[in-house]
Amino acid sequence: MHVHRLELVDFRSYPRVEVDFEPGASVLIGPNGIGKTNLVEALGYVATLASHRVATDAPLVRTGAASGVIRCQVVHDERQLLVELELVPGKANRARLGHSPARRARDVIGALRLVMFAPEDIELVRGEPALRRRYLDELLVARQPRFAAVCGDYERVVKQRNALLRTAVLAKKSGASADLSTLEVWDAHLARYGAELLAGRLDLVAALADHVADGYAAVAGNGSAGAGMTYRSTVEDLTGEPTSDAAGLEHALSAALAQVRDSEIERGVTMVGPHRDDLLLMLAADPSAPMPVKGYASHGESWSYAVAMRLAAYRLLRAEGVEPVLVLDDVFAELDPGRRDRLARSISDATQTLVTCADEDDVPRALRGVRYEVGEGEVKRV
Question: Which candidate, 206, 157, 214, 212, places its Cα nearest to that of 184?
Answer without folding.
Answer: 157
